[in-house]
Write a structure and sequence with these properties.
Bound molecules: zinc ion
CATH architecture: 4-Layer Sandwich
Structural class: alpha/beta
Oligomer: single chain
Radius of gyration: 18 Å
Number of strands: 16
Strand content: 25-35%
Strand order of the largest sheet: 6-5-4-3-2-1-16
CATH topology: Metallo-beta-lactamase, Chain A
């Protein structure tokens, strides 16, 4: 039976949180998005939005009240706006939960340095949940532990210090064998577009159900070399890839609700399949 994918937006800012009046309609937390899969919750990046997610599922419950057996956190990279939610994440203290962390080469050591003394009072050794780190290579495929009907792929992003783009693809069980061709989600944050990356990314995001995009800048605000993209490039990417929808996130810290509302209106006129992410937004695929 076909199962719906429920995607929740927990944080939409890049660089730093913006918890201030005039910024909260879209949201003040840094990036975090989740995908519910029955017993599993797949989380894309751990910005400050991850803390809100963690408080909500502190008891390990999904939207329909079922327990998540496993949480999977996929990191695009370790810039602070993508990991700061780890400092306050209640599920770390829940013994029954398995938490799988996925990231690029060497990310375990870096995260253990960041979350733990002397930079933080508690570290991974104090957490009671069952933790496992999975280091991934760009350009490879991987499985998420316990989720055999989902396959992951990675692509190297163009970002200072590197980043990973993810593609999650549903594997459908037919005649006793799994095959791709179901729903798919592509996560392309913190990646600056040039000609080479554009075609590689369009192939990576080909015919995906949802493309989640780095809308760090709007049009002419783009700062070359900063490692980010614009919502206009997100629309061009969705169209080149033939993706069904594109979800914008990772907004510049300086963009107010008034500014983003205007951008959303312009984007909607250019491409009705473009969605501007807001904290708390739920998208069903
Ligand atoms: Zn970022
Ligand atoms: Zn970054």
């Amino acid at each position: 039976m076909e199962r719906k994918w429920r995607i929740t937006v927990w944080g939409v800012r890049g660089s730093a949180p913006r918890p201030e009046a005039g910024y909260l309609e879209y949201g003040g937390n840094t990036v975090c998005t989740s995908l519910e899969r029955k017993d599993d919750l797949v989380i894309l990046d751990g910005g400050s939005g991850l803390s809100c997610l963690g408080r909500k599922i502190g008891g390990g419950q999904s939207a329909d009240g079922a327990d998540f057996k496993r949480l999977h956190i996929l990191f695009s990279h370790l810039h602070l706006d993508h990991v700061m939610g780890l400092f306050q994440f209640p599920p770390f203290y829940r013994q029954e939960t398995e938490i799988h962390l996925y990231g690029g080469s060497g990310f375990q050591e870096k995260l253990e340095t960041l979350v733990g003394p002397p930079l933080w009072p508690v570290g991974f050794r104090e957490f009671r949940a069952k933790l496992a780190f999975h280091e991934l290579c760009p350009g490879g495929a991987f499985y998420l532990t316990g989720l055999k009907d989902l396959r992951g792929y990675t692509m190297e992003g163009n970002h200072p210090g590197g980043s990973l783009l993810y593609r999650l693809e549903e594997m459908t069980d037919e005649n006793g064998g799994y095959k791709t061709g179901g729903k798919s989600l592509v996560y392309g944050l913190d990646c600056e577009i040039n000609e080479v990356i554009f075609s590689a990314c369009a192939a990576f995001a080909k015919e995906s159900s949802l493309l989640i995009w780095d809308a760090g800048f709007a049009g002419e605000d783009l700062r070359p070399g900063w490692g980010h993209s614009t919502w206009q490039q997100g629309i061009a990417m969705r169209q080149a890839a033939g993706a069904e929808r594109v979800l914008m996130t990772h907004y510049n810290w300086a963009y107010s609700d008034t500014f983003l509302r205007r951008q959303e209106e312009l984007a909607g006129r250019m491409d009705p399949a473009c969605i501007f992410g807001r904290e708390g937004m739920v998208i069903t695929l």
